[in-house]
Protein 1
Amino acid sequence: MTLTGTGAGTPELAAYVTLRRGRVADTDGKVDPGANGSADGRVDPGTNGSTKPAARAASPELVARLRRALQNRVPDYMVPASLDVLAELPTMPSGKIDRPRLPPPRGARLRSGGSTIVAPGTEFERRVAAVWSDVLGVPTDQLSTDADFFTDLGGHSLLAARTVSVLRERGIGDGPAVRDLYAHPTIHALAHHLSTPRARGATVAAVAAGPGPMRRGSRRWRRAAPLLRIPTGLAQAAFLLLLVALGALPVALVYASFGGAVAVSAALGPLALAGLTSYFTMRWVLPPVLVRLLSVGLRPGRYRLWGWTYLRLWALDVVLTVAPLRVLAGSALMGPYLRLLGARIGRRTHLGSGMVSAPALVSIADDATVGYDAGLRPWIVEHEWVVVAPVVVGEGAFVGASAVLEPGTRVRRRGGVAEHTVLTRNQHVPEGRWWGGSPARPLDGPDPVVAEIQELPAVPGWSRWDLARSVAGLAALELTMIAMVTPAVVLVWTMLLLGGVGAGLVAAALSGPVFVVTVCAAVGVLRPLVLPRIPLGTHPARSSLGIRKWMADTLLELSLTLTNSLYSTLYTVPWLRFLGARIGRGAEVSTIAHIDPELLVLRDGSFVADMASVGAATFHRGYLNFTPTEIGRRSFVGNAAYVPAGTRTGSGSLVGVLTVPPPAGVPDGTSWLGAPAMHLPRRQDSGDYPERETFHPPRRRVAERLAIEFVRVTAPASILAVSLYLVLLTLSEVASATTAPVTALAAPLVFAGGSLAVYLTVVLAKWAVVGRYRPRREPLWSRFVRRTELVTGLYEAAAVPALLGVLAGTPWLPPALRLLGARIGWGAWLGTTYLTEFDLVHVRIGAGASVGERSVVLYDATVEDGAALGPLSLVMKGERLTRHSRWIGIPAQSDPLPVGET
């Protein structure tokens, strides 16, 4: 078997067979003419001048027998799509199969159910059959209307996405979705489904009455918008420089007081004090003041992008990024702090997420729960407009982890939003009802753990003693963060004093490994001291256990933030084992978001991709629940998937991108996609690679990867340290040559120059190490993967925190990404830096299109002009969202709201 292409250019698995003897008998003793090894000695000319043996179609009887045999031996996704008979297989001098000389597949599809072809009976069926024929490369006279797209015709997820896209382009059906094809996998069933009018409003949550249609801007406004971007962009740059100036002021004054001569031991104390003053001022003092000022007069409505209201909202988000929300999330102090920022927060709440925007427009009532990384977004950008409306969580309501609540959403009293669910603009969850999925659908009730918690007696609020312990825990965490950078600072300062400027520069370059080791040591030592044992089951959260759980979570969050490039490397697994996780040989892990390592089991060869959440604890009504989670042997958890605690995935299984696995678990060898999850009968084959390139690499390749990934882990910290060292050195020179006011005014420009230098270093590294990204498929252990992962680590752990992160939502981010190779149209608004493999913009976002928060657009997909993709949604490989349409869901499906409505 080998990976080849269809007439539509789609890769698929093809089988070629030869005969051990000259002839093969049928089950009734007759000779199968399609299996006669001596009957075909023809050859086809190859593209390189060589010859290719001609393929010959097998008989229907042989096809049926081989398919039955394959179905009994291998998973559905490994059953080839076509079967051809060759007199012999082409070989190289080494005796290996010469795959480039294999002929194009011309044989029969490996379809089941005998050879009977049921022709289309209606015009709608004929139109659907024509699409299937074009995508699958199968003549229409060989397509039966009762043949299953996946199990009979060899279809897989990429072919499904392309089929649905062509249906949309040809106007067949009312917004067909990939989920429709999986639910109706035959021509007859799909045609009947698409020809039946549907009330899509019944599949989503109730939408409250809101403002009328949001009209696109007038021609006059659209001509003026690019001009408005310029003054707004300059105002954004000025605001960022103002923040840097406030943070750098104490350090600049110390330099000025010493006349720039800071390479003396007497300056160490004042500089350390100035640094601490800057840290606490920017983190704790300034955010409440600025957030309150920026929120004055903020009202619900629709506002022009790049206008004054947008500028205020953007500035609010920038200030909140330096505020301690992520450290306070999950603690007894989160509610009081959000009240300080202007939010309306009730009593006895659990707020486990720091992803809160525009606090003045957020209201959370008594006894409500907000889970890990739930996004409360009172404002969004869509189609040249900014939509602003309150987000309300009612009394006793539940918002699950990784959920997204858009402007105008409301979860009413004792209502619930399940994990990984999206509520779009103005959707309301009725009192006592539960919704889940993307798009949100009504559920019978909460999951069993939450249902069990709801039956327990109420838990009192936090006591004063608990609040005091929480304050002490917060102080300990803040001191820990300061202690994490101290060894690297001492190293550089000591070398500067002993060896001069050059020695200090070398020490700064070598401080990266010191910093990484310090962070890991601090987390590795302190976490088991804080939370030595995790008791299974349900326990009161407003207790010593709850405080210790919050501190343990925060320590892991610090590890993920400060040593981000450590993850997705060979160093991740031993690090997690040290923390208590049970991880098998050959497993790969890209993240540790909200895990409890002691309760996590990853079997041999398993893979957990970036941004996935696996086994997070559940909080509600003052309780928390711990349950073990197991990922099976050679199973895969996709990017941004959410695997609830207590889930068990079977060996060889797959949980796709953004997917929540089924509540009953994931059986061996099965594949799932979506929220709620749908079963994928057949996977797209990724190619045939030897085990040494996938699961069992040679020792030399392991050593090579360890060396490259050591650079990936430590280089970002070293680059940032060198940049800071040179910035302070430059500031010293400025202070020695000018007055204190000039030094203070120059400081933000010098720091901005340092950030720019970090970004340009990453740009040079990208072009030197990888060059231009081109479409390709590589096994995990290839050198190319190592090089691209090195660049990704530098980008995410150096360029983004140093500069690009604060440029999100400004006109300056698109040109910065263009230097890295991305092709971004003029006037595009980007609120994210999650863009890698920059040159491969086979993901096409059309003019005037919008992609919502936490959505994923996979490669080879297209979002056409004016199309809108909602939050927490997925556009699959090869899928196309048609012009001026609206989509939402995992995977995407037609949204009942017209484009531009609220």
Note: Residues 123-198 form a domain with the Non-ribosomal Peptide Synthetase Peptidyl Carrier Protein; Chain A fold (CATH 1.10.1200.10).
Protein 2
Amino acid sequence: MKLKKLAVLMAVVSGAYAVPNMAFAQESQATTQKLVYPTTRIHQEQQDHFMFGEYGRPSNYVGSSSTSFSDTSDFPRPDDGIDQYFTETVVDKYRWLEDIDPINPEYAKETSADRERNLIGTRLENEVPDDQFDNRTTKALQTVAEPTSSEVNDWVNAQNAVTNEYLNNIPYYDQIRKNIDSLMDREHLIRRYKFDNIGELYMYRGTDGFNRIRTTDPLGNQTIIYDESLLSSDGRVGVADGDMYPSENGTYVALIMRDGNADSNKYFIRVLDSKTGQDVTTPIQNISYSGLAIAWLDDTRFYFPTTNGGWPEVHMRDVSKNSFNDKIEVSRKHLAQWIEDIWLEGDDNRYLVIQHSSPVENFYIKDLHTGKYYRIHNQKFFDKKYHNPDAFTHGFLARYVHFDPKTLDVWFISEENNPKGEIIKSNLNNLKKREVVVTAPTDYDEILEAVWHNRGDGYFLINYSKNGTHRVVVTDSRGNPLRDLTPAEGGNIDDLYSLVASEGSHGQPVDDPLIVNDENNQNYVSFRFYSTTTPRTIYKYNPVRDQMIDVRRRDLHPFVTEDYESKEVMYTSKDGTQVPMVISYKKGTVLDGKNPTVLYGYGGFSGISDHAFRFDRATWLEHGGIWATAHLRGGAELGEEWHKAGKRLDKMNVFDDFEAAADYLINQGYTSPDYLAISGASNGGLLVGAAMTLNPSKYRVALPEVGVLDMLRHQDNYHTGYWVDEYGTPYDSIEMYEKLKSYSPYHNVKAGTCYPSTIVMTSKRDDRVTPSHSYKFAAELQDKQGCGRPVFLYAAEKQGHGPGTWEDRKDNYQIVTAFRLHEMGITSVPTITNRPSEDELKGAKRLEEEAKEHEEFLKNRQKLLENQQ
């Protein structure tokens, strides 16, 4: 059956809302009420078996007896959607929804003329006649039609129309957007630098969400040298990592760019003249999201990672030569798959440091004068434990702490003696000699990060993990704790830093004697704290004086942190395991079981659920909600063993942990099943899908986002072979097949069961977890929902694996906030207008500093003007 045209379909669907919204939202028992959804045909009902799935790859590999997912057949068999697993036959009635439109960005950019010439040839149009094999060179070999739409795309558009109509009928839908706008639409400082000749480089996000770079020369003349609003109207072309990289004297600014939000979109590097904003060299291509880093050697040369056959190399570009032959500084044989960062050490930038992972963390140091490489990790330990690790193993061979380029002493964190990590000291001249200077923690789960502060006998500032959150401690040179500086419960800490005025930061000399003598402000350690209720805040502490010398917000988002609090709790899972969770809410919240609550989780791929301040969480809190993040097994919050306890045949532990978290929130009075929503994305989307199908009565609202929802086909859709280590495949064994099917969301929807109100969220251009997972799951839920609670699909048009642009994020936050509240029976939301000003958030001390800085600028400007006369 062909889909009806959208206009006709919407005329039919418009009658689906005869029941008043609030009456519908408040029902909590199964009913026979049904919404009218777009017609979804059954795959086996007609003989139109599709041949090719996403990316032009054969979409059916079922029956393969191994985990090798290549298919060398020129014409793979038609896909009937009926698969045999050992002794069981499974009929996939919505298999046709896997025939999604091509995601590949090169295909999407083809014009009609390109396709007629068939120069790219990303789609097989016709069979090639006998005795000819190259259909790219002979126009007569094919008849090309302009791609317009497809059955799947028409179906998705119809689903989106139904979803949007329902959302737009929520009485306070627009008010929630206004509240989000008032929270997010503030100018935000990203980075700024000052240079003698150039003046100030100031990168910021404007109130419209576009990033810009503004220069202010010593005379006060301002120029916008970079403006993302001029690159694309929707913000999909812009800086990939939200940062800028100025050269040594500020003459040039390097930017890592992305063209779109999907994984397969291109990344490239631009280098701009910091005075004019003009490109000074050809853009550097073949940049990968697995290596977004730049390190300037001087004012014209910089190092950057690129890819060669999927593996990274580090090249050097000299912008004064504009050459395509960038020197290979570090070849692929020295590097792991992912480059985390690169930087230079030494007074003359002699040493190149590369932090990378494979997936376990490690770093190399290269002497640029001699060309010698120094492998810091213990090779025997690597060969024994990590020679061929699973793709998402959590571990660290060597994590950089400090390097002294004069003595060649190097300090690093390693788990070679203890999985919790130790700080080890060695020397580049004898890396086999290793001294443990800070032993593995007994009160914490892991050493995450540390910096060395070279004052007196020396100090360490160490960031520890504890039950998924962070603790920051100042210790002496042997790791004995002196002061716990952790600001509050339930937060994360990063960006540890040390400044010694006589040395400068990272060993750089400081020539200004006023800075050297300014002990109060120029000898300190610092760190950055943030949480669900606290935007990034910088703390500066002088360990010699045992004095906190400054605390200030880094991010001036107009959120009233003082009105909220977070609490760390431990709860008991099904098998008795103690699982940590952080709960955030407004102070004074009454635990009466009626609080709208979101339970969020991930639980896989050794991912760590952070507690960053995010606008979606802040929006939920401002609208009276509670936000709970559970640190489930499958993640690495408590180390690699915690990860292993939630993968493959032990995956059910993750879902048990999540259910137990919900039970805790209900039993402690935070919420009840009528007010509990569950959310998660990617592997977290699988978590939500499994939770809502295994225990549907426990949750009122479910929002699986970009989820892996068909566990019998996860390895058959695009480039997901690296998921096999985490999930296993249904071909591995009968036991693995039965385990996957037992929790696969798509295969556990039962007719007549009342499932939570649901929006299955994805993007048409998600090339990490293909949207067919969401399409099929939504279709199955709509068909079998046993009560009047709605089940919708929302597929964003141009997003990748989640919202990318500023407006995409706002759309997402508006949808999830309004839908959750509406389905819980909330009848009104506040109008949030009285937000703190930027000056109020800065505080008196910071405003005084800025006034002095401006006064000094005016004096210097006057001197320059007098010298010009």
Note: The CA atoms of residues 449 and 463 lie 5 Å apart.
Protein 3
Amino acid sequence: MINQEYHFDITPHIVKQLGEQLVSDEITALLELIKNSFDADATYVSIEINTTGQYTKEKLFYPNHRGFIVVEDDGFGMSENTIMKSWLLISYSQKRELKEAKKKTPGGRTPLGDKGLGRLSTQRLADICEIFTNEEKESGTHIAFNWKDFEKEDALSEVRIQAEHFTPQKIKGTTLILANLNHSEVWDGKNLENFKGQVSQIISPYKENRPFDVYLKINGININLDKSNDELRDLAISRFKFNFDGSSITIQGKTKLSKFIGNNQEDFKNFLEIDNGRKFYDYLSKKQPDIEKCDNSFFIKFEKKFDFKKDIGGLEIFDGERANPGSFNGIIDEFTYDNWMSYDENIKEIFGKLSNYREFAQSQAGIKLFRNGFAVKPFGIDGDDWLRLGDSQTKGSSYYPLRPANVIGYFSIDEGINDKLKDKTDREGLVSNPYSRNFFVLCFFIRDEINRYQEHIRRTYNDFLKTYKTENSGIKTVNQAFSQLKETKLKTEEVKDEFKNAVISVDKAIEESDRLVKTVKNNPIFSTDLEKEAAENINFLLSKLKEIQNTLEKLEKVISRTEKLNEVINILEPKIQILEEQLMNFSELASLGLTAESVSHEFSSIADRLAERASFYGAKLHGKNITDSDLYVFFEYINSTVNGLKIQLKHLDPTLKYNREKKSEIKLSLFFKEESEYYKNRLQKNSIDFTIFLEADFSISINRGKIVQIIDNLISNSEYWLIKLKGNDPNCKPSITIKIESPWIYFYDNGYGISPAIENMLFEPFVTTKPKGEGRGLGLFIIQQLLDSSKCTIALEPSRNEHGRKYIFAINFSNIINEYK
């Protein structure tokens, strides 16, 4: 019989190595300790870092040390039994049990830690760890150990732990002393400013987002996390707030007038600053009624609301419904570092000079993800651009969308509410699941809506400048501009000879005046007082003549350049005419691309189905069990597939370039009868019904390819959202309806309808609630351009569906109608 009791053990070196691998840097290690204070229901945590001194406020087991970190809180503290488990039993976590049972701490907090590994972070910071802790009205426990001992002993149980009881001075709480710092240079010298910036990245500098007070002192210097952040935020040129309450997203934004300075201060002064933006706001509000005037330091503001189920595409379905990540909120502040900021009095007062402001702001730059006030790495930290703000960035200062180096902000989540958004074990990102992926879809949606607003006000400002500059100059068209240039050239030719004569006359006058002045100066004895006075006057005139001569020399260069205006006109005029023609074709070509994209998708589907059938019957042939009936079915399928391809080509043919210029009389009932087979085949794959109602037939004179593109784009848009509706509600029966009622076509579906947030700007370019990569927001804009080129219009009918949304598109063909007989 074996007397030896066999059991597992572990070398302490493995524990130390585990801590090094799981905690990537000193900032992360410190953050884990601050989270422990949060989980203990502390109202504050105080951190003191001293790189050279000794801690003397308590009697320590290891009094001889150099440098220390103290983390102190007023949380509920630990009993002796809790210390044995929570600190000395590796990977044990009572918090994990709480979270799994969806319970909270006595103070109502959902614990942030659950891995049982936070204690290992202390070994990255220092060699020695001493803990003073006590529960309310209980005696205290003091333990200490040295991480160096983990490298000496053979078994974990042999590592020396020193312990004693003590009489506490405070009611409850924990004080953690870490001594003999491993990397004191992190907290000292030139690295100190960098560390301050890192702390603001890891612990939310926004008071409203921070769950408790954090006090920080480094080598005797108090670091104020709030004051610097508040002063910086006051300098933001735009501010955006957003909130997802679990069922809808609300986005609010404010913009200062200075946002429009860009790289042209002269235009800003002449057209905005002169009346504090009054004319521009009047112009803007007509284009976008949802934008309102601000009463404070901001110029304009907006608010939009989007329904989680109805408005946002690209969301994953899990367990029969959209995976909801839980409510969250956030703020994004936008800054500019352009040179005009150097004259801002606030910059001078707070930062001294522009470079200091730029350096401080950029050290905070990025959009963070905060969980209960603590950063989730790597989001927005050390330049991480998780929102991909830099994807379409340009170098020009006129770039309006959010830029990674010019924004400071956060998305705020909660450990309890967003319990499906889990940290990875190494604290570097979120675990990928349907909830986290949908969370990112919502984040990108918010980004895109903010950028759409930014681009919209930029385009409107450019249009405003164009309009008012045109009014002031009187030049309305490119042809008028060229006429002005030609007229300038002719007038220059007319005055050219006169100018040459004037130059000669001035040269002679200077020469004669100079001679007279020199005569008087060289013969002062023989000159009368009258001659001397005249000489002084002539000398004055001589100086003026020389100024005129200098100006004429400059004008001569200008006139010589105007002689080349004809060459410039001859080069530019045909190029601009070609460019205008190309712009006219843009809408048709872009729409053709969307139509071709749809048809190519159908080609791909047909090819896949044919390949699948060929493989099936090929296997039968290989097994020598194919029958005549099988061959008949296969050949019939090939015939139907060929006919399907012909339908696709027939549908695409009118949209090709050689046909796009042909106009013909089209009877709408006949047109939809011919095209309905294509649309029904396309839509039936997704169980979408397609119905045409004929109330009053009529004919129009239009290019067939153009009307095909218009209907295609409308159907593609409905198809996308009806597929999403089917994902949310498997029992729904999606349908698309077209009603012909002279001189109108009414187009609608039984989906959710148009989001109220975009109904007033639906036909603007790049307006969509589809996620990036699934929609460009050009379809309806192109439809409007195509109809406009034929003197027709499209609009949303005022009537609303059961969801309280507009949903009917009305196309007016009255300008191209042919009376049907």
Note: Residues 744 and 812 are 5 Å apart (CA to CA).
